[in-house]
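Q: How would the structure tokens look for this protein?
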Amino acid sequence: MAKSGRKAKTGGSEGLRAISRFRLSDILMMLFVGLLCATCIFPFLHVAAKSVSGNSAVIAKRVFFVPIDFTLDAYRSIFADGSLVKSMGYSVMVTAIFTLFGMISCTCAAYPLSRKRLKGRGFFTLLLMIPMYFSAGIIPSYLLMKDLRLLDTMWVLIFPLIYAPSNMLIMKNFFLSAIPDSLEESAFLDGATNVQILFRIVLPLSKAILATLSLFYAVGRWNAYADNMYYIKSDALKMVQYRLYQMVASATEAQTTTLSEAAAVTSTPEVLQAASIMFITIPIICIYPFVQKYFVKGTMVGAVKG
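A: Here is the predicted structure in token form.
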């Protein structure tokens, strides 16, 4: 009882000291972080509210963060049209393949460069980091894709970007800080090969960085549409983000947003745009809860040691 009483007093005194150390700078920092969070949350809530609000309320600019005259007509139009739904499935497939290939290339580059036994690893690291600072430009890249016969194919959206120097550097730093050389040396003494060490020791211990970089790859591919605009002509190969860009651009120029004749559009262009944005954004947001516990750990550990 005496010990528990002393612990309670100690905990209480520590709490009082923590409160006494709570300064004005801490309050200002909390307000600043809160404002940054608000700049991300409030626009999302505004678009979400417009997507399920009535046309008259949206036109009258009365919708802010709470829906008015709740309706799902805009979402019904999207599903009735079918083009965005097909593009969504195609985009999910491209993003999954791109993420898989990207993680393979990143791991194959980062793991050897993180091992001290690799001779010339400084030179190879410098060589692989050059694309991070220099690029040929759009026109030479277009001509290269044309010579490789990748134009207007799914692979033109995958192969050019699967190697990311920044992701490779993060993974390399993680391996340096989290995978000691002594662990590999003991595995070598037991007769393990490099491939066995990678798949049975290194990768199982690297779930945090694998989840983090997979998220980086998936979000980067999902949100990109510039290469789709440059290299793709067929409607069947257009990703959903590029279709949304075309929809917003056409609505900005002509104040109309059109779907196919199969969809009975009963929503105004502004409501239909908001519903399309939510339809495209929600799937990628749903991934975050599953990788959240790895995300912070992976980014912090991978960025500590250079």
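The mean pLDDT is 80.

Residues 83-114 form the longest helix (32 residues).

Upvote if useful.
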